[in-house]
Amino acid sequence: FFSSLSLSLSLSLSHTHTHTSCVRSNRSNNRKPALSYSELMTLGSGGSSVVVPRNFRLLEELERGEKGIGDGTVSYGMDDGDDIYMRSWTGTIIGPHNSVHEGRIYQLKLFCDKDYPEKPPTVRFHSRVNMTCVNHETGVVEAKKFGILANWQREYTMEDILIQLKKEMAAPQNRKLVQPPEGTFF
After folding, report:
1. What Gene3D superfamilies does the database record attribute to this sequence (predicted)?
2. Which is nearest to 88 in space by CA: 110, 57, 108?
């Protein structure tokens, strides 16, 4: 399923690339590989950018999540490969060193509504955790108490959210908080 989506994305982006080849090459008959999300974001004249459709953006994030980019302590992927709207995602964070979270594995749910990435996803811990930005009854990460969600920008990603949550675990206000027993869930 993901291969066919990636192929569709590549074909669509190749088509887009055909119309914009003058930006990347003076030889208009030269076919180049499909553009990545970051290339599309910088495509345009005079510093203007192209707004990438929601599903293309999510496909790019899915590809990054599948490749395991980063240090391997955060990961994410779709809950249901048949969800054509790509709304429901699962994230995992391995707790940071030198904190009460060290060695623990935290599971999260991220929900990208139809207005993502213009607005942030809803983020909720499935694993019980005690953090200042997490609602103690529901596990929801409260946007007002978590900087990246409170100051959301279109270019932020689900990976950025997970990395910031891991950093928040290691922050002075959270790194020594007593935690619920490991393996308990909201």
Report:
1. Ubiquitin Conjugating Enzyme
2. 110
